[in-house]
Structure formats: C-alpha cells, structure tokens
C-alpha cells in the first residue's frame, strides 16, 4: 500500500493532485485543514492536506517460511485453549506451496478462536487506539529515527505474546458486528502478508483500518455535472424507506445546492404512496408527475426537461416476484437514451445477509446501481454494509439513520464506518 500526503488551496485541488499521482483508484483516508501561523497569519489562506492511499501489487509470501515461523511462535507462546492445538510437522522435503500457505492461514484462524474469550482489556485497548488512529497514521507517514531504532531493537518474542490475543479480539469484533466470516478471513489472511508477529499493535490496527477503508472505496453521491435533466431512480424492496430517502436527498439538493428538483412516481401499487410524495413535493414547492406504466415514463420526463434533476420513486417488490421484476426492468431500461440516469438500490441495514444477497442479484439483472443503506438507527451491527459492498461490488453512496427529513441522511463515510466495525464509537 502506498500512502502519501498532498496539499492544495482547497480540498478539491489536493484531492486532484492525489488522483493525478496515485491514479483513479486512490482512496482519500483523511482531509485536514492547515491554518496559517505566525505574525501575519490573518493575511494568509488556509491550506488543505489530503492523505491518500492506493493498493500496490502484493508480494508473494514464502509460505514454507511462514509455516515454520508459525511453529516457532507456538513454542514461545503459552496459550490456554479448550482443546489441544495440533501443528503438523514440517517435512524437510519441499512442501507443496498451496498446502503450506493454507496450513499457515488455518493455524492463525484456529488459534485466534481457541484463546480465552475474556479479553475485555484487549477490546478496551482497540477502542482507545481507534480514537487515535490519525496519530498512528501520522507516525507511519513520517517515521522518526528514534522509532526506527526502537523497532529494530524490540524483541519479537514480546510482540508475539502481545499480538496474537490482539488479532483474536479483532477477529471476534468483526464477527460480532456481523461481517461475514468469508470477509473477516480475508482481513486476517492479509495480515499474513505483513510481519504481524514482529509488528507493533499500532501498526497491525492501522494496517487493518487502512485495508478496510480501501475495501469500501470512495462514496459516489448524485452528480449533476452532466446533461440536464439527470434522471435518478430509487429502487428496492418494500418498506426500506425509498420515498423518505428520496425526499431527504431532494431537500439537500434544493436547499443546500440550489438545484431545480422535480419528482416522478411510478409507485401506484402501495396505498397512499403518491400522496406521501405529494406532501413532500408541496413542502419543497416541487412538481410531481404520476405515471401508471413504463410507457408513460418518457412523457413524464419531457414535462420536466428544464429541471436539473428528476427523482423517480418506484414501487417496492419482493425479489421473488418475477412479474414485478420485469415491470421494473421495462421502466428503468425503457428510458430514452438521450437522458442521463443513475439507479440507487435502497436497502435496510436490518435485513438478513442472505436476503440482501438475493435482492442484490435480482436488481443487478435490472441495472447497475449504487447503494443506499437505511435504518442504521434500528440496528447495532453494521457488518452487512461491508458484506453487500464486497458481494455486489457496488459503491455505497448514502446512509440514513432516522425518519427526519432532511436531517437523518449523510454521504457514506468509510472512516467512520470502519471505526464502528472495529469496535470504536
């Protein structure tokens, strides 16, 4: 992973510099305002500093050496377990590459699960360190000579005793937050590619934190820089809060950005659905057009061609209902190609992961989409946000955490979400 800082007169300028050097896949880790100092500070402008990161191609791990290191570590750590830990002997002959690598990975996961569960102190340490992650990143970016010398002289045996329980707590914390075990294992496996048994706890936590931010990627909110009007579809299952979410975004676009917003609804299945949207339209002084079939979509858009954005509310349906799925496909795919469009799949953070996967698959057949997660105030675990992001490979754009319009919505913040998933507040 390459991590660098870039400065500019604005956040956008600094971000552009980062993208220009690191590429389009660069992820912004942090944005900081640097205020001028000195006698004439009142005459100077603030600078903005962007910390950005990009994944590098990973070096191949020598799995034979990794396995031997694991065995040596076992000899030096006194672990209390509910069952004996079996380590297969290493033959002096050449070991099959894939088997050796798998053995090393399985050893780490098995031992992480077998250690005692009363690691309250480790959890508290994670929470404390998550609160100071920025200083950890600063230390990584600008290492001092003294720290390098200390790193060289530190005893790896002491680090081993400290780090294995720490990694075990990270593993359990992600599982408790309902991150799917497949993705938790990926996070732990990636620690194989760093010298975790010789690294400090700060370095391990910072590495996991950065890797997870990169997994989320950059959020992509509604972009109105192209042709007008931009047509934005809100799709998703029944009861996830599509209409309320649409109203929140409309309010932000109109009040904060001064955009001309119009509503179009195709939700004629649900009782009083159009009336609910009409109430929001009256409050925002925004026109509303109701359509009853996919054929009427382009006529409705034509009536509002002088607006910046048209937000389209659609009927929710069960992902098992094939007829309604076909109706939705006709609606989204039947739009005249002269208009630009985006599709946002609205999902509830309280829905089971298995159901979310099926929903994601069904709507992928209709169109590519970005994700909006609602009802974060109704759950204490957020792992499904990462699960579906990685499963669908769609960008997470917005999250909502209540019914208040327009307050309870924000552009997705990967840093805040990763801190929550790792046990922070």
Question: How does this model look, in words?
Answer:
There is one protein chain. The protein has 425 residues and is an alpha/beta fold. It folds into three domains: 2-54; 63-216, no CATH class; 230-413, Rossmann fold (3-Layer(aba) Sandwich). The chain contains 16 helices and eleven strands. An eight-stranded mixed sheet has the order 6-5-7-4-8-9-10-11, with helices on both faces. A three-stranded antiparallel sheet has the order 1-3-2. Helix 2 runs parallel beside helix 3 (97-114).
Topology:
Elements: E1 2-8, H1 11-22, E2 27-34, E3 47-54, H2 63-76, H3 97-114, H4 120-131, H5 133-141, H6 145-153, H7 156-176, H8 181-190, H9 201-216, E4 230-235, H10 242-256, E5 261-265, H11 273-284, E6 288-290, H12 297-302, E7 309-313, H13 322-333, E8 340-348, H14 353-366, E9 370-374, H15 383-392, E10 396-400, E11 409-411, H16 414-421
Parallel strand pairs: 4-7, 4-8, 5-6, 5-7, 8-9, 9-10
Antiparallel strand pairs: 1-3, 2-3, 10-11
Helix pairs in contact: 2-3, 3-7, 7-8, 9-16, 10-11, 13-14, 14-15
What labels would you give this structure?
425 residues; alpha/beta; Rossmann fold; 3 domains; 16 helices; 47% helix
Low-pLDDT runs: 58-101, 107-118, 141-149, 151-156
Strands in their spatial order, largest beta sheet: 6-5-7-4-8-9-10-11
Termini separation comes to 26 Å
Structural class: alpha/beta
Number of separate strands: 11
Helix content: 40-55%
What Rg is obtained from the alpha carbons, in whole angstroms? 25 Å
- Structural domains: how many: 3
Shape: globular
The main pleated sheet reads as: 8 strands, mixed
Number of H/I helices: 16
Q: Could you name the CATH topology of the largest domain?
A: Rossmann fold
Percentage of residues in DSSP E strands: 15-25%
What's the CATH H-level superfamily name of the largest domain? P-loop containing nucleotide triphosphate hydrolases
Summed over residues and divided by their number, the pLDDT gives a mean of 77
- Secondary-structure arrangement, i.e. CATH architecture of the largest domain: 3-Layer(aba) Sandwich
The CATH class of the largest domain turns out to be Alpha Beta
Order of helices and strands: EHEEHHHHHHHHEHEHEHEHEHEHEEH
